[in-house]
TrEMBL record:
It is a multi-pass membrane protein. GO terms for cellular component: plasma membrane. It is found in: Cell membrane. The keyword Metal-binding does not apply. InterPro entries: MFS, MFS_dom, MFS_Exporter, MFS_trans_sf, Sugar_transporter_CS. The keyword Metal-binding does not apply. Residues 12-391 form the Major facilitator superfamily (MFS) profile domain. PROSITE patterns: MFS, SUGAR_TRANSPORT_2. Keywords: Membrane, Transmembrane, Transmembrane helix, Transport. SUPFAM superfamilies: MFS general substrate transporter (SSF103473). It comes from Lysinibacillus pakistanensis. The chain crosses the membrane at residues 12-37, 49-67, 79-96, 108-129, 141-163, 169-192, 213-239, 245-263, 275-295, 301-321, 333-356, 368-387. This is MFS transporter. One of its GO terms (molecular function) is transmembrane transporter activity.
Length: 399
């Protein structure tokens, strides 16, 4: 019986990870194609096309904000059902979004659906993992999103090259969303007593009904780190063209994903055995080194070395920080912890490109990326005061 409880790679773990991979894949497939679609189909301006692309993230934030409370009331499996149903319907609705306002509305709704569904999958994963292996398990689970960030843009760009009609992209997305919805019926979620849940969510409007305060410190560090990384995600194409390293730019996220795949199994086990500090501090330093290399790159080799460093640093920080948010939270509030973490993390990713974009014309991409080194160094200080020093005290008491 004990051996069964220790099992990590269960049917439910694999299916929920696959669901998360698929919805994230659809998101990244569309994020690299929808702006061009808005320009070509509806003659949208560049700024409006950017809003068509980014309004999805706004929807995701709204979706995550209320999902922790909904999971507390309905349970994680019912919440996942609603999120996947809405995600499937909104994905199919691209075929009937016949004007720019409808397209933007559909993007917003799909973002809300992704926020609900991905928060539910993260909560279910936390519920089905053995407590003593959560760090390792969440590390593996987060690979589903990492792979999607590399494969999604590749498929999206490939489809635009193979087919002139964007409806083929919508058709592929729709098929994936339908498959994803029906995978839901294969998932089994452990029962959590209703009384335990009710005790954590009180009637009326209270911040604690929507935000898990214990997860807030590490989530704030994730916001700062997400802000530092956001420019890489949003301005990669422009920066690579400016440096005449377009080929290297196309391989950047592949190298990034491969490095994370290679290192994540070790960092997850190390987290469970030795705690977060032994991983977080080196990862943030390596992330800063990667950002310096990225900001000063002039060759393909330097560009890809930067991808590897950013993959080790930023990629592993994200999974470990998510695991921390789960570890410091009682089981009955895992939904709130997951939504709290991703609300702040997504906020950093969403606000970053908009804010940094103001400085690009006057400062240039290289200077912008170089300045992010100081943001990363600031995050090391924030991490120490918000979480790191408390883990040191806990380890000292244990020893």
């Amino acid at each position: 019986m004990e051996a069964t409880r220790q099992k990590l790679w269960t049917k439910d773990f694999l299916i929920v990870s696959l669901i998360n991979f698929t919805i994230t894949l659809i998101f990244y497939l569309l994020i690299v194609t929808i702006a061009a679609y808005a320009v070509e189909q509806f003659q949208a301006s560049t700024s409006t096309a950017g809003l068509v692309s980014s309004i999805f993230i706004i929807g995701t934030l709204f979706g995550r904000l209320g999902t922790g409370r909904i999971i507390g009331d309905w349970g994680s499996k019912k919440t996942l059902f609603c999120g996947l149903l809405l995600f499937m319907l909104s994905t199919i609705s691209y075929f009937i979004a016949g004007n720019l306002p409808l397209l933007m509305l559909n993007r917003l709704v799909q973002g809300i659906a992704l926020g609900v569904a991905s928060t539910a999958t993260g909560t279910i994963i936390a519920q089905i993992l053995p407590t003593e292996r959560r760090g390792e398990g969440i590390g593996y689970y987060s690979l589903s999103a990492i792979l999607a960030t590399a494969i999604g843009p590749f498929i999206g760009i490939l489809l635009t090259q193979l087919f002139e009609d964007y409806r083929m992209i919508f058709a592929v997305d729709s098929v994936l969303a339908i498959i994803c919805f029906f995978m839901y019926f294969m998932v089994t979620v452990p029962f959590i007593p209703k009384k335990a849940t009710e005790a954590t969510v009180k009637a009326g409007f209270k911040v604690s009904n929507f935000i898990e305060m214990r997860a807030l410190p590490i989530a704030f560090v994730a916001l700062v780190i997400g802000f530092a990384y956001s420019g890489v995600m949003s301005f990669m194409t422009f920066y690579a063209k400016e440096l005449d390293l377009v080929t290297a730019g196309s391989y950047f996220f592949i190298i990034y994903a491969v490095v994370i795949l290679a290192t994540r199994p070790f960092t997850g086990k190390l987290l469970d055995a030795r705690g977060a500090n032994i991983i977080i501090y080196p990862c943030l330093v390596i992330f800063a080194i990667g950002m310096y290399t990225f900001s000063s790159a002039t060759t393909t080799i330097a560009f890809l070395i930067a991808a590897a460093c950013i993959g080790v640093g930023y990629g592993n920080f994200n999974s470990v920080a998510q695991a921390i948010a789960i570890k410091v939270t009682p089981n009955e509030r895992l939904g709130l912890a997951t939504s709290t973490y991703f609300i702040l993390y997504d906020l950093g990713l969403g606000v970053g490109p908009y804010f940094l974009g103001f400085f690009v014309p006057s400062k240039g991409y290289s200077t912008i990326f170089f300045s992010m080194i100081f943001v990363i160094l600031l995050s090391i200080v924030l991490y120490y005061f918000l979480y790191g020093k408390y883990e040191n005290l806990k380890q000292a008491r244990i020893s």
